[in-house]
TrEMBL record:
GO biological process: SOS response
Organism of provenance: Desulfosarcina ovata subsp. ovata
Domain ATP-grasp: 74-275
Protein name: ATP-grasp domain-containing protein
Entry GO terms, CC: cytoplasm
Coiled-coil region list: none
PROSITE patterns, alphabetized: ATP_GRASP
Length: 291
C-alpha cells in the first residue's frame, strides 16, 4: 500500500496533515505502508515519524532537517567539501560576538542572510560597517521574537546572474536568473530577474554536474539549488550559494507543469523500488495534477 500525505498526489491511501501534528491514526497507517509520499511543506515531526516507521519516504529530507536553515546549509556544504563562497554561520548574536573576530579584517563586501526566508527577502549586501550594524540590528529584532541565526558570506562579483538547478526526483533542470537592473541586489524572479534557459550551455552543464554529484552524496531529491560562477585565473567554476526546499516554478513552466513532473518522478521512484499503485488508483487518476 502506498500512502500519500501530498494533496496533489493520489495514492492507495491519502491523508491530509496540513496545519496539525501527526497523530496515532496517522502512525497506524504509516506502519502499514510500503512507501510514504510527503508534501514539500511537511513538518519535521511528520517526516521523522514516516522515516522511523516506513522504509521508503519521498522526498528525502534528511539533509533539510539534519542541517536546518541557511546556517545548517553552510555547515552541510562544509561537511561535504563542496565548492561554495567562504561562509560564517552564527547561531545568534552571542555566537557572533564570540567569533566575529576570526573573520578577515578586510572582508567587505559581504552578504548577510538571515537563517530563513526565500526569494531574497532576508538577504542584504554589506558594503560598509554601517550596513553591517544595520543588519545586526535587524537580527537582534528577530532574535527578540524568537527567530535566531544568520550567516555572513563572501561576496562573489557577478551576482546579477545565478543558476537555479531544480531537482525533482531524478530530473534536474537548470536555468539562469538574470537581474538586468544593476541597482537591485539579488536575482530572484520576485525582484524582477528574468529567466534564461539557453545561455552559456557549458556553464549550465557544469552547474548541473555539480548539483547531480551533490544530490548523489546527500540523497536530496526535491530542492532548488542556487549557484554562482566565480572567475579564477584558470577557470570559471560554479559555487553553491544555498538550497531552497521551497522553490519557484516559473522556470519550470508554472505550477501545473511542475506537478505533472512531480507525479511522473514519484511514479518512477516507486517503480525503481519495485512498488506501484493499485490498478484502481492508476485507472481513476487523471494524467496531470494541479494545485
Amino acid at each position: 500500500m502506498i500512502l500519500s500525505f501530498h494533496p496533489c498526489y493520489e495514492a492507495d491511501a491519502n491523508i491530509i496533515c496540513a496545519g496539525r501534528e501527526p497523530d496515532e491514526k496517522d502512525l497506524a497507517v504509516i506502519r502499514t505502508a510500503e512507501a510514504v509520499i510527503l508534501p514539500q511543506g511537511c513538518r519535521e515531526s511528520l517526516y521523522r515519524l514516516s522515516r522511523q516507521h516506513c522504509r521508503h519516504v519521498f522526498p528525502d529530507y534528511d539533509m533539510r532537517f539534519n542541517y536546518p536553515g541557511k546556517t545548517g546549509q553552510a555547515r552541510l556544504f562544509r561537511a561535504l567539501a563542496v565548492p561554495h563562497p567562504e561562509t560564517w554561520p552564527f547561531d545568534d548574536l552571542s555566537d557572533y560576538a564570540q567569533r566575529a573576530g576570526r573573520m578577515p579584517k578586510d572582508g567587505l563586501p559581504l552578504v548577510f542572510k538571515l537563517d530563513w526566508g526565500g526569494e531574497g527577502e532576508t538577504v542584504v549586501l554589506i558594503r560598509s560597517a554601517a550596513d553591517l550594524e544595520a543588519a545586526l540590528s535587524t537580527a537582534a529584532a528577530y532574535e527578540r521574537s524568537g527567530q535566531r541565526g544568520f550567516i555572513l558570506q563572501r561576496f562573489v562579483p557577478g551576482t546579477h546572474r545565478t543558476l537555479r538547478v531544480a531537482v525533482t526526483g531524478k530530473r534536474l533542470t537548470a536555468y539562469w536568473r538574470i537581474q538586468e537592473n544593476l541597482l537591485v541586489f539579488g536575482t530572484s524572479v520576485a525582484h524582477g530577474a528574468r529567466i534564461d534557459h539557453d545561455s552559456d550551455p557549458l556553464l549550465r552543464q557544469a552547474g548541473l554536474d555539480l548539483a547531480r554529484d551533490f544530490c548523489r552524496r546527500s540523497k536530496i531529491n526535491l530542492a532548488g539549488f542556487d549557484l554562482i560562477f566565480e572567475n579564477t585565473q584558470s577557470q570559471t567554476r560554479p559555487l553553491f550559494l544555498e538550497i531552497n526546499y521551497f522553490f519557484g516554478r516559473t522556470g519550470l513552466g508554472g505550477s501545473d507543469a511542475f506537478y505533472t513532473m512531480l507525479k511522473t518522478e514519484i511514479d518512477g521512484w516507486l517503480e525503481d523500488l519495485g512498488l506501484s499503485l493499485s490498478p484502481a488508483v492508476k485507472n481513476e487518476r487523471p494524467d496531470t495534477i494541479g494545485d
